[in-house]
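So, can you check this record?

>
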Amino acid sequence: MAESVAGLLINQLSTLLSQEITLLGGLKSDVQFIKDELESMKAFLREAEAKEDNDSQLRAWLKQVRERYQALYGTQERGFSSSRQANADFDIRAQSLFIEEAQLVGIDKPKAELISKILDDHSQLKVVSVVGMGGLGKTTLVKKVYDDAAVKKQFQSHAWITVSRNFQFRDIIKNLIQYLYNEIRQPVPPEVESMNDIMLSEFVRDFLQERRYILVLDDVWSIDAWEAIKCVLPDSTIASRVVLTTRIADVASASCLGSPDFVYKMEPLSDKESWTLFCNRTFQSNDCPPNLEEVAKKILKKCEGLPLAIVAIGGVLALKHKEKTDEWEMILHGFGGEADGSGKLDRMKRVLLLSYNDLPHYLKSCLLYLSIYPEDYPIDVDVILLKWIALGFVEEKEGITSTDIAMRYMKELINRSLIQVKSTLYDGSLDKCGLHDFVREILVSKSKEQGFTTVATKYYTRWPEKVRHLAIHNFTDNPQEISSLKCLRSVVIFEYEDPLTTTFLSEFLSGDPKLLKVLDLDGGELDNIPKQVFKLFHLRRMGDYSNEYAGWGCKCPLGIGKLICLEALYNIEADSDKLVREIGKLTQLRRLTITGLRREDGKELLSSLLRLTNLRRLSISCIKEDETLDLQHSVFPKHEFLTSLRLKGRLERVPQWVTSLQSLRTLQLFNSTLREDENVIGSLGHLPNLISLSLSCL
């Protein structure tokens, strides 16, 4: 990060030198001198940052450098262009991007043992606990067992619930109900929403009473959490099973007090299994080159059979030159000395910190920013890429879009096993990603140490005066005294215990966060946008992306057109022609969701869309369910980058401008009254990239 500071200063000074202005006498040469000095500091800063974890004085000095930079040069956070070609051989390894955590190495024997315990002839409810430290692959193993065909067919109901450290009984039970009803393809009864905890518990017991079920409780952190969930589960002597994973031995023991219960203690991989996994990850199943075998085995020994550590270090080494033994020796020595008696968690932390320290600087900011997300949170890939871009983490390169560069960053972090793929879309593209718990813990610690991100729980947690990236988990409308927010670049809210109000947001913005670029209110459902927002001239993302297609809209006073840097605007209620006209001033928009469009404003909207040539995703909903979307005018928007279009409202025919969208991949027409006839299909048949068409009524 310190080198990123120097790189950014150099970029800004270069810009200053290139401007066609008359500098005061002597100033130009002074600027050039500073630029040259910063260039000479790069090599030092690179080494300093790599060593800061083992040197408290150096760490303190680097923190001061970062804070000084934020005070003086806070409008960007982008690093310099690295001379290392970290992406050079990325495509060659594309087939190994999504290697599973243990790639099935060493999993056959424990899988068979767990299946035999689950499918034995005990008729009572049986608990099988899998215990071991983070990174051993507990979840991977249990998922393979849970998905096994022989296991699936023995049970009528199946559910997988992630419990996590922030255990909330009500949320867990409601998630379980949702899971059970999804499986039988029925909606959850509406009365569930108003039930108290006792009623929810009885509801689950009644549902499962006569069913043979298997329930996985992944990542249980406390005995109290297990005891609370156990009371919900019926024991109806029909051989139901609960499988539990935990890092804590006492939790495993407490959950398995009955005679048929079973605790499986996960052990590290054997030397042979570790070597197989290491070679799979580092050399794509090829044998280790003879010149590297000695140093590779020394590095592998440091991993102590931990699959996550092996996969992580293998991702680092896969990018190193196979002929340059000295690069591998540097990785070995990068582990540093180990104090006698240090625990495995500390050793694993060193391994994962090594993966972090080896990252190019443009990836460090991207990865650290993920520390804002709650534990086990499914991170939307498209959304996080846009945040990286908005916050200046993505370097610009001629001839390549910033979105493509950001996706390269994402794939490289996946390739290094620092980010996990959670799900993909029908076309194989990335959908959701996430962090392993241990990786997240390290990032949270690192980010807090550097003052990079701040996480406030339930909002009454105080944050530093120079907070840069603020995340609020479980929002409550009980704010601390708002102090200066002049260093703030992004604020994201996850989950709400109290409704988000316009009054609160107005008070929050009174902290004068002039440099704010990202304002994401995940699930906030704000009624009105306060006028203070229009002072945020650097704002690039605003709204509630989690409810992008929710149907409701947020009222917006006139003035939205002042936010000329805005790239994403969600759920804005188009309740006047003036507001629709102002949207046309937001020429940098990539994503736009409009609700409540009146029929008479259709032509005005098309006129505004003419100017929004950077749009990638567009959603338009009419004011009433039976209202007509009047989008048939001679005004002809041409959006060469638009890939997703959603129209909700009656249509007489497919608008002519839609048939010219050459990049369109997804088209959704809701309540259009159009049918899948030759006229509709024929009018869209010339779209070369269209792969998904939906015609439906809501």
Remarks:
- The chain has a mean pLDDT of 77.
